[in-house]
Prior knowledge:
Helix content: 40-55%
Distance between the termini: 50 Å
Amino acid sequence: MPRIFDNIEQQLLTALCETLPLSSNADFCVGYFNLRGWKNLDSHIESWSDGEGNCCRLLVGMQRLPQDELRQALSVAGEKPGMDNQAALRLKKRLAEEFRDQLATGIPTSEDEAGLRRLAAQIKDKKVVVKLFLRYPLHAKLYLLFRPDPVNPITGFLGSSNLTFAGLSRQGELNIDILDHDACNKLAKWFEDRWNDRWCIDISEDLVKVIEESWAREDDIPPYHIYLKIAYHLAQEARAGLSEFSIPRDFGKKLFDYQTAAVKIAAHHLNKRGGVMIGDVVGLEKTLMATAVARIFEDDYGLETLVICPKNLVTMWDDYCAEYRLRAKIIPISQVQTKLPELRRYRIIQRAGRVDRIGQKAEEILCYSFLPAEGVEQIIRLRSRVRQRLRENAEVVGTDEAFFEGDGDGQAIVDLYNERSGILDGDADAEVDLASYAYQIWKNAVDAGPSLRKIIPQLPSVVYSSRKHQPTVERPEGVLIYMQTTDGHDALAWMDKDGKSVTESQFTILKAATCPADTLAVPRLKNHHELVGKGVALIVSEERSVGGQLGRPSGARFRTYERLKRFADEISGTIMEYQYGPDLLHKSIEDIYRFPLRQATTDTLNRHLRSGISDPALAELVIALREEDRLCIIHEDEETREPRLICSMGLIAEGEVEE
């Protein structure tokens, strides 16, 4: 009787590892090949002697997804024509992309990196040959191991396990060993017939290329390219804004190029998130830029604008509205509380200026201070940051109170009271949004080196590099990590060499990645990948704590859930509750909480939320989307969003022990 390998009592991986050292060559046929899983077997293949036939031949079938099989089975267009060269090349290219996606998923490890490099080396040495079977979808899982033994020349394993770590050792499978001579010979012939089929194509060189272009490559990536990859992805929204909107003709050439870019980027943020802030130093036409943004939304979406500003700026806004044909209602800040409740829905421009001593007629100015908890202080370094700003910037708004208990830096308060200049200079974090800052980095780089437009976007995810770094207490050596969260948000982290977070300031981390084009790569820290994993875990945990199950509060999912939950509570027990059908509203709310929204639904909800949809209309929309199965991603076989590591950069101190 054959032995059963179900990965419960006996693992197929254990049986293969026991048989491979006794073998001289092997033939494997699988439906799916996990490149990272090869490291579990490569040591046994490596020991085989060189020469013809002393290799592992790996045959990979092209499996169809269940929905593709159903679509073809129910197709009314008839049978598709047979395989041809064009179709074969297309399928070969598709599989190469699938292998690239494999390596761009998850968190790298030192073991995976070493295993992938060994796989590439074994393919180059002809110890492993990989072919793709294209004549028809092939699901077979067969492992044949050969040895110079007249008594037992072939050992076979036949069953359900693909060449993945889970398939060989973890998930429930059903495999048996085949020792009968006649059966093994028939299986060997079956394999040989498919290996020599006309539409069985060698993809060995393609796999080597995939590995050598991935994060597991032997060649170093210039640190400057990692820096630009961060900037390139961070600038995505800025680049999208520049192409998404156009400036109304009324503004002619009154906007400089950088102001035009700022207006388009602001319009993109406003359209995507429902709000945006335009900030700059005094006298650089923020009002004109805000007017341009308002005109874009009036023209493109048929909206009207509400301007809330200090009373002495009402005349100025009247002039702007007349000159640039803005359909706007202007309200002084002093009248907001009385007039705002009477107005219909607008979009809103609020002019926020300085509140200071100069020109104030009030007898008293109230200033509030607070004492942060020690845990918070350790994270955001508020006291030290404020002290630094008070030392470097000081002007206006004086008080003789200590900002923090035990703060002995009284001179800073005196400087504020004496109105020294510079208080508006602020931290870099407050000067410009991250996307715009990254866009300028990207633009400067490609203007100086046009070839980077092609090089940087082609760098795959998970790539890394390391460079020399002069560590300080606040800027220690370690690893910078850039990833995109499940909600598609950009996130940066800086972990020191002990795995502790250095700062949460995204600007500080981006600036720490800054390096010139000629910066040389150096060997990574031995625990580089482990630090990357800790950084990713930190970002994911913070995203959950900030956004919870529903994502960020500004997102369509969070806002829709909160509004519908409140609306359901308001109509509970009333006749309106039965207007939507038995439990339909509650089931829709539950689905939104449990499952991610479809991307098209997210876009739809964002559009309606921006247009001021009422709660009853929102409820009807969501229920209709759910009835049409267009609300959430519920089925397991549908793609769900995962956090995606984009790249990382190691900061290595001089003399650090490295690989």
